[in-house]
Design goal:
By secondary structure, the chain is of the alpha/beta class. The protein is built from three helices and twelve strands, in the order E-H-E-E-E-E-E-H-E-H-E-E-E-E-E. The structure holds zinc ion. Zinc ion (ZN) binds next to loops.
């Protein structure tokens, strides 16, 4: 039986660390795993995913999800799903129907606090959540008050909708301290 697991959270919530841990566990169970990530994301070099604590794993860079070769794989892992088009949703369904375990990770909300959209699409993280068998929410720590952070705030002015970066542009904040909600 295939399944779709979704791993969501703000920036700096340890999504990649958690992903790498899961991959390790699945490999220990004898499963073959392949990790894919969008080509746009060049943080920490090319063909790897890397956690903020610098643990890395091989990952295949692809532009479109249709390029993912998963024939001989038990577990398909996709990091930073929101840099793909919404055909990712169709592929997840197809892979699940073929009996594969699909794990998808990324932000649930954009920096404005809205559901994270796929590239050029009306579809968002909510569509991913709707099709998931299991959803895990990770949290970070609010940089202002230290409470649990579920949101990401952009700390610079930019007209670029999808500004790729880390702590230089973004910080994790709780709902109370996010611009969408604070008075
Ligand atoms: Zn706060």
């Amino acid at each position: 039986m295939g399944k779709i697991d979704v791993l969501l959270g703000p920036m700096f919530s340890g999504k990649t660390t958690s992903l790498i841990k899961r991959v390790q566990e699945l490999e220990d169970e004898g499963k073959t795993v392949k990790i894919f990530k969008p080509r746009v994301d060049n943080r920490y070099g090319e063909e790897v995913i890397c956690s903020h604590d610098k643990i890395s794993r091989k990952a295949y860079n692809i532009q479109d999800i249709s390029e993912a070769e998963v024939e001989k794989v038990d577990v398909v892992v996709i990091d930073e799903y929101f840099f793909f088009k919404d055909n990712l949703l169709d592929y997840c369904k197809i892979w699940k129907d073929k009996g594969k375990h699909v794990i998808v990770a990324g932000l649930d909300l954009d920096h404005k606090g809205e559901p994270m959209p796929f590239i050029d699409s009306e579809k968002t993280s909510q569509d991913l959540i709707d099709m998931a068998d299991e959803v895990t929410y990770l949290k970070s720590k609010c940089e202002i008050c230290g409470k649990e952070a579920t949101m990401t705030e952009r700390t610079v002015e930019s007209n670029t909708e999808r500004l790729v970066g880390g702590t230089e542009y973004y910080r994790p904040v709780c709902k109370e301290h996010h611009p969408k909600w604070k008075k």
